[in-house]
Design brief:
By secondary structure, the protein is α/β, with parallel strands linked by helices. It contains 6 helices and 13 strands. It comes from Skermanella cutis.
């Protein structure tokens, strides 16, 4: 069995210090095998915010895998935004924009979906490109069928149940066709500051393979969207997976909701 702690949207520069400290305590208590951080470590991509985010990561007691979010690209310094959008992220946080954690039970691949600009007015929207999709295929094609396969991005592949028109990561359909082919089991993301989980087939009807999704709320930021600070605790045990949501209640993180799935005949079903 492998236990993943999935945290997202930390937004150092606009955080609640009490929540940060409680999160560190709770993560140490649940003892994950890997902590996955799905982007937006900073609020504006400033040097001091990246230093604070790095200090947080250095206090984690478990290995971690991290990808950037759109807020990790400088938003005020346009020269930095366009000339070297992820220079600060790579200096302070992680040089590898395609991080991989792999062992005999699980393979977790991170992909950067944050972009400095796009063909739309809201540059916070993300995209996945053809090179990243090809890289994911090469990684997972080399992994055995008994290994549980996870992709981590900042931007979502599945909208919230009550907001089906939410904009998803660009080229989601193309990426999902590849993920389907190479046996991806789970997608982790953030960006929306909303927590939920489900199956991509509920929205992407062309996808035939059952691929689960877990979206995480903001773990530490004061930028809440009608949800408390929270993170996902995910237990993977072969053809069984459990999602627990750990929610800030004002004094600490506590268990709030859970979902259990079992894979039968190649499809994930609620247990």
């Amino acid at each position: 069995m492998r236990r993943l702690a999935h945290i997202s949207d930390l937004h150092f520069g606009r955080i609640d210090e009490a929540v940060v400290e409680a999160l560190l305590v709770d993560l140490a208590g649940v003892r994950p095998d890997l902590i996955v951080v799905s982007g937006d470590l900073t609020q504006r991509g400033h040097h001091d915010q990246f230093r604070a985010a790095r200090a947080f990561l250095q206090r984690l007691e478990a290995p971690y895998l991290v990808v950037p979010g759109n807020h990790d690209i400088p938003g005020v310094n346009l020269l930095a935004r366009f000339a070297a959008p992820l220079r600060r992220y790579r200096r302070y946080i992680e040089r590898d924009l395609r991080p991989l954690h792999r062992d005999e039970e699980i393979a977790v691949l991170g992909l950067n979906t944050a972009r400095p600009m796009g063909l739309h007015w809201n540059w916070s929207h993300g995209r996945i490109n053809a090179d990243q999709i090809a890289h994911a295929r090469s990684v997972f094609d080399s992994v055995g069928p008994d290994v549980f396969k996870v992709v981590v991005t900042h931007h979502p592949f599945l909208p919230p149940p009550d907001a089906p028109d939410t904009r998803l990561v660009g080229r989601a359909g193309l990426a999902l066709r590849t993920f389907e082919h190479c046996g991806v089991d789970l997608l982790l993301a953030g960006h929306l500051h909303r927590g939920y989980h489900g199956d991509v087939r509920t929205h992407h009807t062309a996808v035939k393979r059952s691929i689960l999704v877990a979206q995480a709320s903001t773990a530490t930021s004061t930028r809440l969207r009608n949800e408390p600070n929270a993170y996902n605790l995910i237990d993977v045990d072969g053809d069984r997976i459990g999602f627990d949501v750990r929610v800030w209640d004002g004094t600490g993180f506590r268990h709030d909701a859970a979902g259990r799935f079992v894979r039968r005949h190649g499809h994930w079903e609620r247990a």
